[in-house]
Amino acid sequence: MGIGYLLFIPAAHYMEYMAVMFALFVLATGVAFLQVALNPLIVKVGSEQTGSARMNLGGSGSNSLYGPSRGDYRYRGTYLFYPTAEN
């Protein structure tokens, strides 16, 4: 996954579409491997009856709520959920 992130640096520098697509493919492959490897661990952490709920919450819970706001702050310097006079 980290290699996929690092591949975006030369891809952005040379502005090559196929390099960006390759970096995105490497990144997505790493995320998929990470999720597959962590599924048994997440199920075994607590009771097996609530294992599926923990997997769903870990994959989409707070990340889908806070991710766009953090990205907005990173690129624009303002938070998505707190508009300013410039927005």
Automatic annotation (TrEMBL):
InterPro entries, per the entry: MFS_trans_sf, MFS_TsgA-like
Entry's localization field: Cell inner membrane
Keywords: Cell membrane, Membrane, Transmembrane, Transmembrane helix
Domain of life, per lineage: Bacteria
Annotated membrane topology: Multi-pass membrane protein
GO CC, one annotated term: plasma membrane
Transmembrane segments: 17-38
Principal cellular location given in the protein's record: membrane
Name of the featured protein: Glucose/galactose transporter family protein
Organism expressing this protein natively: Shewanella benthica KT99
